[in-house]
Amino acid sequence: MKIGILGTGIVGQTIGSRLIQNHHQVMLGARSAQNEKAAQWVQQQGEHASQGTFADAARFGEILFNCTAGMASLEVLQQAGPDNLPGKILVDVSNPLDFSRGMPPVLSVCNEDSLAERIQRTFPQLKVVKTLNTMTCAIMVKPDSLQEEHNVFISGNETTAKATVTKLLQNEFGWKSVIDLGDITSARGTEMFLPLWLRLYGTFQSADFNIKIVRK
Question: Domains in the chain, start-ordered, CATH in brackets?
Answer without folding.
Answer: 2-204 (3.40.50.720)
